[in-house]
Amino acid sequence: MHKKKHIVISGTYSTGKTTTTTALSIATGIPMINSLSAREILTYLYPGRRFQDMDMTELIALGLFRFKERIKAEEKLIANNNDFISDGSVLNEWIYGTVRTQIGINPGAPWYHQVIKFILGLNSNRFMKKYLKSYGVVVNKYAKDTYTNVIHLPIEFKMSPDGHRPVSEKYRRLSDKDIFNSYKKLGIPMDVVGGSQIERINKIIKILDLPQIVSSENAINEANKRIEKSREMVSQRIIDQYHKPTILEKIRILSRF
């Protein structure tokens, strides 16, 4: 009996993780772990809130909710003795948090917003670093015990201009470096795979010796359709929930770390 593959498609924001994971799952027939996106969780936990207006407590809640959903989905497949392909991993939310403690909790917000948050967070940031260090112990242990292979997607594309990426290019570079180094330290077999979407799928299938039941081209086309439909639904939900904050609400947002 072959050892089950628990594959992570790794990378930071806008590296093509979701498209690659979805297409690879369709091409191979291996179940996909697709935990709720941060945008989907946002509409559930904090309807009407924008990423750039969130405080650290809210950001932690998003990360913990996504961690819970991912663990639940992965453990279900593991219990059934299944292979799986995961869109990102438990390390993503942890590293996204640690990078925010380095460059600011709202890297996609206007500069004056970032300056105010930096000043407000001078004391709280020390606690956050300790908290995330403890959180890191848990997720690193889980990753080492659970994942068998990592495919890391480097930054090759510009950040999606959809207006919903709550980060900066500096944030992307730092988180990409930290994600890569974290897997390297864990010693999980890792391959860096770049190129076009079809090149990526073909390379991954070859590297990991995966079965193929759908052509790479058809798998990518189907993946794009599914992702576009999902994003349209979430975008509409965000639009429906959003209301322009009043002056008092803006002051309240700026005064919370």
In short:
The protein has 257 residues and is α/β, with parallel strands linked by helices. The protein has helices at 17-28, 38-45, 56-79, 90-103, 111-120, 124-146, 169-186, 197-208, 216-241, 247-254; strands spanning 6-10, 32-33, 84-87, 149-152, 190-192.
How does this structure look, described?
The protein has a single domain, classed as Rossmann fold (3-Layer(aba) Sandwich). The chain starts with 5 loop residues before the first strand and ends with a helix. The protein is 60% helix and 7% strand. The protein has helices at 17-28, 38-45, 56-79, 90-103, 111-120, 124-146, 169-186, 197-208, 216-241, 247-254; strands spanning 6-10, 32-33, 84-87, 149-152, 190-192. With 257 residues, it is of the alpha/beta class.
Major sheet, described briefly? Answer: 5 strands, parallel
CATH 2nd-level architecture = 3-Layer(aba) Sandwich
The largest sheet has its strands arranged as: 2-3-1-4-5
Q: How far is the first residue's CA from the last residue's CA? A: 52 Å
* Overall 3D form: globular
What is the third-level CATH name, the topology? Answer: Rossmann fold
Assembly state = single chain
Beta-strand content estimate = 5-15%
Q: Quick one: how many beta strands?
A: 5
Features:
257 residues; five-stranded parallel sheet; Rossmann fold; alpha/beta; 60% helix; single chain
List the helices and strands and how they pair.
Layout: E1 6-10, H1 17-28, E2 32-33, H2 38-45, H3 56-79, E3 84-87, H4 90-103, H5 111-120, H6 124-146, E4 149-152, H7 169-186, E5 190-192, H8 197-208, H9 216-241, H10 247-254
